[in-house]
Amino acid sequence: MSSTSPGPSHALAGFAHGLRFDDIPAPVLERARIHILDALGIGLASTTFPFSRATLTAVEALSGGGGARIIGTAQTAAPRDAALANGVLIHGLDYDDTHLQAIVHPTAAVLPAVLAVAEQRGLSGREALAAYCVGMETTVRLGTAIAGGFHHTGFHGTGVFGHFAAALVAGRLMGAAPADHVNALGIAASTASGVQLYLEEGAGTKRLHPGWAASAGITAATLARHGFIGPSRALEGRFGLFETHLHSHAANVDMRALTTGLGTEWMMEQTALKPYPVCHYIHGAADAAGEIFARLDGAAIASVDILLPQETMGTVAEPIAQKRAVSNAYEAQFSAPFVVAAMLLNGRFGLHDLSDEALANPRTRALAARCTCVTDPQSRFPAYFSGGVKVTLESGETLSAHVPINNGAGPRRLSLEAARQKFMENAGLAVPPDRAQALAEAVAQIETQPLSTLMELLTAP
């Protein structure tokens, strides 16, 4: 591609500028409402966990107040800082949506940017919903184009792609021209990062990535709107995103995924919701463990083999000694042995299984120590996060289960009713049932009212 040929950066800029609300198919809008509802419920739940206190205290120190609301609190902040906080809250429990092929959490960076800018500018829910769809589609297509390549080079895709998506979202809500969007993408190319170093010790920096992306995207869009010039080939240029972040894997980028059917074929519609608050790579194995639980009938377990996609081993199975003996909730969420052990003992895994008491449970820890992780020969990764479990009982009998399509994905994606139930459970940790119900209704009718109606319901009394 020559330096003068229009490429994907310009195509995405045109998409962000030109898409009309009426161009978005009704099924896509319905999925968008479901995912917004899911994210807000998770954000509310996060306010009851210790990590939120450090985040909100720091944001207060950084911002000193402002006109944008923060989920589940009475606190307000400048839009960039509110977006930072809301991104941490939505992603902080690792319970938010994932596009499996793109291996990215799209809502966590997109929605905070939408909420902050749309509220600041007094926009309608209709405008916010359209911008959300633009950001979701952008994130998913960027992730799909690199086919999980960032996991080979140490970057967290959500943290990187979120900068570009949030820049387009914020710019659209600000009334940016196509040239502004191109400049904003170029600026985002210099801010986009997010390394996976948190995997070494269960650190909380992964929680920060989407919020930082949302904040940086607002910054990029604002600079561009005021005449700041960014490189015009942020994605495809020499030293652009793909070359700098993928190195030798850049040759595998599928540029067609960025533009083919853009605006008419909606990849975001296949984004999956999580039934468990753990890394999505574990979900197939967790489903399988749940099936075996129903057949165990209290039998003593000698050992467990967990079948996982080979590509996910470095995230949820290695180093095995650390994964068997987690020291905090974040390590537990990325530990196949811990999650599978809890599923085999309890038949379920929810936010309560990440409490200090649950993490210290001697039965769970003892069983996790007897878990071994092996490659799943029937894996359908990355289309689905397949998984299996083989339990050897002390009697010598074996029980096995394999789940090719994890619950919440593809043909098993959560329905509106299931998503609403998840929302009510999560929101119920932070707000009374009547407030949660009102929030659910406001999201269902988001395009018929000012966004401020929803934001007022999200604010703690």
Task: Describe what you observe in this structure.
The structure is a single chain. The protein is an alpha+beta fold and 461 residues long. The strands form two sheets. A four-stranded mixed sheet has the order 4-3-5-6, covered by helices on one side. A two-stranded antiparallel sheet has the order 1-2. A hairpin with a 4-residue loop joins strand 5 and strand 6. The radius of gyration is 21 Å and the shape is globular.
Strand order of the largest sheet: 4-3-5-6
Helix content percent band:
40-55%
Q: Measure the end-to-end span.
A: 55 Å
Let me know the largest β-sheet: 4 strands, mixed
Report the C-alpha radius of gyration, rounded: 21 Å
Mean pLDDT: 94
SS strand fraction: 5-15%
Poorly predicted sequence stretches spanning 5 or more consecutive residues: none
> What is the overall silhouette?
globular
Q: Count the strands?
A: 6
Order of helices and strands: HHHEEHHHHHHHHHHEHHHHHHEEEHHH
- How many helical stretches? 22
Helix/strand-derived class? alpha+beta
Map the helices and strands.
Elements: H1 8-18, H2 26-46, H3 50-63, E1 68-69, E2 76-77, H4 79-91, H5 107-120, H6 125-146, H7 150-153, H8 157-174, H9 178-188, H10 205-225, H11 241-246, H12 256-259, H13 283-296, E3 301-308, H14 313-316, H15 320-324, H16 329-333, H17 336-346, H18 356-359, H19 362-368, E4 371-375, E5 387-393, E6 398-403, H20 416-427, H21 433-444, H22 451-458
Parallel strand pairs: 3-4
Antiparallel strand pairs: 1-2, 3-5, 5-6
Helix pairs in contact: 1-8, 1-9, 2-4, 2-6, 2-20, 2-21, 3-4, 4-5, 4-10, 5-6, 5-8, 5-10, 6-8, 8-9, 8-10, 9-10, 13-17, 17-19, 20-21, 21-22
